Amino acid sequence: MDTKNRLAFSFLITWVCTCFLALIIGLTSNPTPAKADVIYHAFDECFANVTAKLPEVQAAGYNYIQISPPNKTPSREDDACTSDKYWYIQYQPFDYVLEGNLGNEQDLKDLIDAAHERGIKVIADVVFNHMANYRFYKDVAPFPEAYPLYPKKEYFREAKCISNYNNSYEVENDWLCSPNDKEGLPDLRTDLPYVQQKQHEYMQKLIALGVDGFRFDAVKHISVEDLGKIVEVIPEDKFYYGEAIGRNFDESMKYIPVFPKVTDFQLVNTLKSAFVYGGDLRSLVNPADSQRALPGDDAVTFARNHDTWAPGQFDNWKFDKNDLVLATAYVLGRKEGTPLILTFDAFEPTIVAGTKFHEKMMGESQYYRNGNEIAESADSPNLLFIERGDKGLTIINKAAETFDVTAAKMPGLGVGCYSELQYDFEMCVDYGGDGQKYINKWGSPNRGGINIGPRTALFFVKNEA
Question: What is the DSSP secondary-structure string of 305-372?
């Protein structure tokens, strides 16, 4: 090979290597958006208390913690570390400094660092639609001079309460008021670059402290256009979602271009109908197909969150205590959605079993098995069977009576034995003489079939060979 050809060949090899290196760098420098598994909602909990609770949170299988808004708000008449009576004060920002009722910046930093040591990530709740009611600051300075970040009237919308929640213009531009708060919450001009800049700076400060994501409060009160500009500073590797209490499927989904996920209140409504007396659990088969739930990739799911827990609001979405546990078991047993579990429910034994099941079943497919494929009497409005690949099974019985059959087929699961995660017994599946798969062991080698108690959920995971 002459000198000219050697130079050309050398250039070609260098070019190919450079292009390959650039491709590798490109692939590794654009991380996919973060996904959470199960979120523990440390609602209205002081940061030091959450830090002390981390071993319990980790043992229960939660790998994300969502904290209440950490910024400065009006002072509370209760002890925020022991009472949730005045929880709503946390959603009335006075300033974006980290000197809130739940702890200071160091308390938050200590929580984040301790959580990260355990492999747990932290999501911060942020409130950008409005500021605290001015009545708290009448003795401080005239409106709006009392607010350090927004001391000019031009940063706020006209003081006018929302009167028609079906009018999207009012919902996005007027003030949030209530019978107990007729003055309302001063609504920020989130379209202004200055307002957006202050909100960017606040999120960047939280990210610098180590926060791994955000929950955005009251997003339906901010235009989609404004929201798009507010979230643009969030890195791709952070998990974030919007609280959208949509009146219907389409209203909730309109925020998906801005947020990777939003709260699935459509599913809450569907769950309520299924678990109420006379409801049918078979209505929970693939509810997103009929817009009775949001698509799983777009949804943060729950049976209750702090909005539906709070006294005096959303009473139509409140569950009976036992129904709440079973509805949450459904949320954790299915593939779709990112489950959010409220602090008051997080350590109930069935829910802990469901949290561990959800974690173990990540990546497994899902199939709602028709009861008549299992046993004649299993096709019932009170029973639901959710298979996860051939490795897991959730069974829910909402009836007040035990469901007991001595022979039950299990066509979707692989041959082998499965451990139940709460009650710690074994179910085994093997082929029968007719070539079909049956449950040949249920707790005891002396019996097969299914025996599930009243108002009970069970979670089975295949034993490793």
Answer: -HHHHSTTS-GGG---HHHHHHHHHHHHHSSSSEEEEETTTTT-HHHHHHHHHHHHTTT--EEE--GG
Residue 435: which CATH number?
2.60.40.1180
* Per-residue pLDDT tens digits for 95-137: 999 999 999 999 999 999 999 999 999 999 999 999 999 988 8
- Judgement on whether residues 345 and 374 belong to the same structural domain of the protein: no
Bridge-based pairing of strands 392-397 and 403-405 is unpaired
In contact, 66 and 54? CB cutoff 8 Å? no
Q: How far apart are CA 369 and CA 365, in angstroms?
A: 13
Q: Is 192 helix (H, G, I), strand (E, B) or coil?
A: coil
Give the three-class secondary structure for 77. coil
In whole angstroms, give the CA distance from residue 187 to residue 172.
9
Distance CA 317, CA 275 (A): 11
Residues 405 and 347 in one domain: no
Its pTM stands at 0.91
* Tens-digit pLDDT profile for residues 145-188: 999 999 999 999 999 999 999 999 999 999 999 887 888 999 99
Q: Which residues are CB-contacts of 10 (< 8 A; sequence separation ≥ 6)?
A: none
> Helix, strand, or coil here: 242?
strand
Determine the Cα angle at 240 with ends 237 and 245, to 5°. 165
Q: Would you give the distance in Å from CA 10 to the centre of its chain?
A: 54
**Phi, psi of 194, deg, nearest 5:** -65, -45
The CATH number given to whatever domain includes residue 174 is 3.20.20.80
One-letter amino acid identity for 207? I
